[in-house]
Amino acid sequence: MDALEAIHGRRSIRAYQKAPLSRALIEELLWAAVQAPTPPVSGTVPWKLCMLEGAERLAAYGLRAKEYARTHQPEGEHWEWPTRPGFEVFWGAPVLVLICAQAGNAEARYDCCRAGQNLLIAAHALGVGTCWIGAPIPWLRSEGVARELGMPEGYDAEVAVVMGVAAQTPVGQPRPRPDVAWLAPSASAADTPTA
Ligand SMILES: Cc1cc2nc3c(=O)[nH]c(=O)nc-3n(C[C@H](O)[C@H](O)[C@H](O)COP(=O)(O)O)c2cc1C
Q1: Which of 81, 135, 183, 184 is deepest in the core (most CB within 10 A)?
Q2: Burial class, 43, CB count within 10 angstroms (exposed 0-12 / middle 13-18 / buried 19+)
Q3: Domain containing 51 — which CATH number?
Q4: What domain range is 42 assigned to?
């Protein structure tokens, strides 16, 4: 599959087979994730990757994450998803990738998002289903959870992606073509002598 096919064909998968993914395949996907551009590659590494495996273990964490979100609604907002019937935080997936951003590095969260997008595309290209999930982030960042899970100190869970073999693939929602402004040089700039 070429890059464009992978970009256009990827869908968020919300039903997984329980079978684990091989460590070799996971490592290959993580290697693709960290090819994302960072400012600069010689700088400090902005992320740490944490892996959690096991559909049952993840499902149990999912219930905790949902309950946390239900009881800790953001001020002035009301999340409906924590009480939505059938909403699963980890969708039965056997693998969870957390891309954790270096604390105190203002760029790190963007770096993590770029790596996350690479991960989704690479996974689709290799026949692995994924879903980017924001739902567990408040719980993951809540008091004591990072320590309980053994996440490295000094890094905050920024991107959560579940992965596995898809049990069902939804039909995609076609995106509208982007609204593009082609910026022609202005008359005054075009007239400016270059030397
Ligand atoms: C930041 C972010 C958070 C998301 N959180 C969730 C989530 O918690 N649960 C979920 O099922 N999907 C989640 N999604 C997936 C989106 O719902 C999905 O990408 C969108 O509906 C478009 O569908 P597609 O990915 O199949 O193209 C999230 C996506 C992003 C980018």
Answers
A1: 135
A2: exposed
A3: 3.40.109.10
A4: 3-191
Render pLDDT for 58-91 as a digit per residue (tens, 0 to 9): 999 999 999 999 999 999 999 999 999 999 999 9
Span from the CA of 133 to the centroid of ligand 1 (angstroms): 6
Residue partners of 114: CB distance under 8 A and separation at least 6: 36, 37, 38
Dist CA 154 CA 102 (whole Å): 6
As a whole number of angstroms, the distance between CA 166 and CA 181 comes to 38
Q: How many angstroms separate the alpha carbon of residue 14 from the centre of ligand 1? A: 10
Chain-centroid distance of CA 40 in Å reads: 22
pTM: 0.93
Q: Point out the ligand 1 atom lying closest to the alpha carbon of residue 87.
A: 11
Please tell me the distance from the alpha carbon of residue 98 to that of residue 130, in angstroms, as a whole number: 13
Number of domains in the chain: 1
pLDDT score of 42 more than 90: no
Instruction: Report which secondary-structure segment, H or E, holds 145.
Output: helix 145-149
